[in-house]
Amino acid sequence: MTNPNGIHHLALSTGDMKGQIEFFTDVLGMRLLALYWMHGAEGAWHAFLELNDSSTLAFVFIPGNEKIEPVLGQTHAGNSGGPSSPGTMQHVAFNVDSKQELLDLRDRIRAKGVTVIGPIPHGLCYSIYFAGPENLTLEIATSGGAPAPLDHEATWVDPEVQKLAGISDEELDRYINPEPFEGQGGAVDQPAFDATRPHPTMPPGVWEMVLATPEAVIVDRVGDETPPARD
After folding, report:
1. CA distance 109 to 96
2. 155-199 residue pLDDT tens
3. Phi, psi (5° rounding) for residue 58?
4. Residue 58's CB: how many other CB atoms inside 10 A?
5. What is the pLDDT of residues 104-149, one digit of tens each?
6. Cβ neighbour number for residue 86 with a 10 Å cutoff
7. Strand 92-95 to strand 136-142: parallel, antiparallel, or no bridges (unpaired)?
8. Alpha-carbon distance 13 to 58, whole Å?
9. 37, 85, 139, 187: which could form a disulfide with 93 (CB 3.0–4.6 Å)?
């Protein structure tokens, strides 16, 4: 397979790690899986909370995070219909498998003193909406029993929205049916640096220096396979 098949982890910045862990373990019942130093990022540490066997929600604390003020409409949307700067998280929706589970989780959220609205039908899913610490915009959704759930034989494409996005019919067909790719077991060489293509934002010249360093050296410097020790 040469396409992603789920979310391994969604990483969110935080200035209050304990507060986030408290909320997501108490209000939503997620289990803390890990809390340790972030390899390769000096002074940074992160936590992982379990969603399922292959997906987690991660929070990252980097010194200085706690000094950055959220600005609604820029750093945070504030609600699921609000604007935020391109590249920021507008909202995150967690999954449950049925409408009954959605109602049960709504009960849990309300029992913890947190306001929540829904379920609201969206055709392909039902959703409930609420907020988390540090102005997080949160949703729980299910396609179980939805009026018109997505499947592999159909897509939800509104011609008016397609036109607004500037997508031609030919492009749409390509997007719906991506060109297959045969992996080569990792044998494809790193492309030359191209400033017009997406790349991590670093001080001038740093990413180019990283690319010029053998990957084995980078892995040796920042990788770590040893779990944190506890007495």
Report:
1. 14
2. 888 899 999 999 999 999 999 888 988 999 989 998 999 989 989
3. -115, 145
4. 17
5. 999 999 999 999 999 999 988 999 999 999 999 999 999 988 888 7
6. 6
7. parallel
8. 9
9. 139
